[in-house]
Design a protein that fits this description.
The chain is α+β, with helices and mostly antiparallel strands. The chain is built from twelve helices and eight strands. It has helices at residues 2-30, 33-40, 42-45, 56-64, 113-123, 132-155, 168-198, 200-210, 236-246, 302-315, 321-349, 351-355, and strands spanning 74-76, 85-89, 92-96, 103-107, 251-256, 263-269, 280-285, 291-295. The two termini are 29 Å apart.
C-alpha cells in the first residue's frame, strides 16, 4: 500500500508540478496584492490628509480635464485618509487628491503586472469561452490536495520534523519532510478553499442548500433594473449618502455611475469585514433615490457569509497582515516541496547519485 501511495504521490507531482509552481509563486504575490499595487503606484497612490474630501462631482469634473470627452463610469474611494481616490473612465482611471481636487496621474488601459499575475494564477492567462485555464488550475488545486494527503500518509511512519543532514540526499529528504509537515495545515486550507473557488458553479449551490439559505446580491445575478429616465439624476454624492443610510456603519468604497437606464451600484465595507473589497452592496435608483437593493455582510445569508469566509481564508485576509504573511510563505513552501521532491526522484533514478 505504501508503495502504491508513493507512486501516486510521485506521478501527481510530476504531472502537476509546473502548474503548482505557477500557483505557488503567483499566490505568494497575490497575498499582498493591494499593498503591492500601492507600492507600484506610490507616486499617485498617497496623499496628505487636509480637511474634508471634495464631493465626487467635483472630483469627477477635475479628473475629466485629464481625459476630455470621456464619460465618468465610477469612483474608487480611499480605504484610508492618506490614500488617493480614483475616478474611473472606460478602461482607464485617474488618480485624484480628494482634498485638493488635483489630478495625480492616469492609469492607462490594459492589464498591468499585478493584473497579469492575478490572471496567471486564476487561468494561466488563457481567455476563452470554455475557460480552459481556470479548469486546468482548478484541477491543479485538486492535485495539491492529493499530494498533501498522500504526503502525510508517507510521512507518518517516520515523523521526521528536523533537518539532521547538511548536504546530500538525506538533506533534501529531511527538507522535504520538514517543509511539508509544517506547512500542511496552511496548504490544506489553501487547497480546499481554492477548489471551492475553482468549482464555484457546482459548489456554491451546494453551500446554499446545506445552509438552507439563498443568494441575494453578492452571489446572485443582480436583477437588471431598466429605469426610465425621469428628471434629473441625483448624482453620485447623493447616491453614496443614501447607501450610508441604508447600511449604517458600512463605509462606501466604490461607486458605479450608471447609464441613463441603470442604477447606482455602491459597494461598501464594514470595519470587521475580512476582505478589502467588502461584501456589502446597495443599488439606488438614479432618478428617485429609492433603494432598490441593500445587502450588508452583517445580514447576508449564511451561504454568502460562508463563501466570503472561504475566500478570505484562501487569500489570507482572514486575520489581516499576519495571516497574509503565513499564507504567502505557505505558498512558497510548495516550491520548496517540488524542488526537493524532484531532486530526490532524480537521485533515486541514478544509482551513482544514490550512492553519494
Amino acid at each position: 500500500m505504501r508503495n502504491i501511495v508513493l507512486q501516486l504521490h510521485l506521478v501527481v507531482a510530476l504531472a502537476a508540478g509546473a502548474f503548482l509552481t505557477v500557483f505557488a509563486v503567483t499566490g505568494s504575490i497575490m497575498a499582498f496584492e493591494p499593498e503591492l499595487d500601492r507600492l507600484l503606484h506610490a507616486r499617485v497612490a498617497y496623499v496628505t490628509p487636509r480637511g474634508s474630501p471634495k464631493t465626487l462631482a467635483e472630483l469627477g469634473a477635475a479628473a475629466s480635464t485629464a481625459l476630455p470627452g470621456e464619460r465618468v463610469t465610477g469612483f474608487l474611494l480611499a480605504a484610508a485618509p492618506n490614500l488617493s481616490y480614483q475616478v474611473l473612465f472606460r478602461g482607464r482611471g485617474v488618480y485624484v487628491d480628494q482634498y485638493t481636487g488635483g489630478v495625480l496621474g492616469v492609469r492607462e488601459a490594459g492589464p498591468d503586472f499585478l493584473a497579469r499575475v492575478h490572471q496567471l494564477h486564476l487561468r494561466l492567462l488563457i481567455q476563452n469561452r470554455a475557460d480552459t485555464g481556470k479548469t486546468i488550475m482548478t484541477w491543479a488545486g485538486v492535485a495539491l490536495l492529493v499530494l498533501l494527503l498522500t504526503g502525510v500518509y508517507l510521512w507518518w511512519p517516520l515523523k521526521r520534523a528536523t533537518i539532521r543532514a547538511r548536504s546530500g540526499r538525506r538533506f533534501w529528504f529531511d527538507l522535504h519532510n520538514v517543509t511539508g509537515i509544517f506547512s500542511f495545515v496552511f496548504l490544506l486550507a489553501i487547497a480546499v478553499t481554492g477548489i471551492v473557488i475553482g468549482f464555484d458553479d457546482r459548489i456554491v449551490p451546494i453551500i446554499y442548500k446545506a445552509t438552507r439559505s439563498a443568494p441575494r446580491v453578492m452571489y446572485a445575478r443582480v436583477p437588471p433594473f431598466e429605469l426610465k429616465p425621469s428628471g434629473r439624476p441625483i448624482g453620485p454624492d447623493r447616491a453614496v449618502a443614501i447607501a450610508r443610510a441604508a447600511l449604517p456603519g458600512a463605509v462606501p468604497i466604490s461607486v458605479n455611475v450608471p447609464s441613463p437606464t441603470g442604477a447606482y451600484a455602491i459597494s461598501a465595507r464594514y470595519p470587521e469585514d475580512l476582505t478589502p473589497g467588502g461584501r456589502s452592496r446597495v443599488l439606488v435608483d438614479q432618478y428617485t433615490g429609492a433603494v432598490l437593493i441593500a445587502e450588508g455582510s452583517r445580514t447576508a445569508p449564511a451561504g454568502s457569509r460562508l463563501i466570503t469566509l472561504n475566500r478570505a481564508v484562501h487569500t489570507g485576509d482572514v486575520l489581516g497582515m499576519p495571516s497574509k504573511v503565513v499564507m504567502s510563505l505557505a505558498s512558497l513552501a510548495v516550491v520548496v516541496q517540488l524542488v526537493s521532491g524532484l531532486l530526490l526522484w532524480w537521485r533515486r533514478r541514478s544509482p551513482a547519485r544514490e550512492a553519494r
